[in-house]
Design a protein that fits this description.
Elements: E1 2-5, E2 12-15, E3 37-38, H1 45-64
């Protein structure tokens, strides 16, 4: 997977291919001349479950206080 960062709005845009026409989904600028970075999107289930548990703990704490 590829990622480009828009110089106009600074948001990240992702694509599965290095397409010729790459439009920023946030501001609409053409990103074809921006350099792309190869990124891997692997999901770490343990880390994700830990973060969800932390979020639940915060919500419960807010309800009790």
């Amino acid at each position: 997977m590829y990622r480009k960062i828009c110089k106009r709005c600074s948001n990240k845009s992702y694509s599965s291919s290095k397409c010729v026409r790459w439009i920023c989904p946030y501001c609409g600028v053409d990103l074809r001349y921006e350099s792309s970075t190869v990124v891997e999107h692997r999901i770490n289930i343990e880390e994700l479950n830990e973060k969800i548990g932390q979020m639940r703990g915060r919500l419960i704490y807010k309800e009790l206080s």
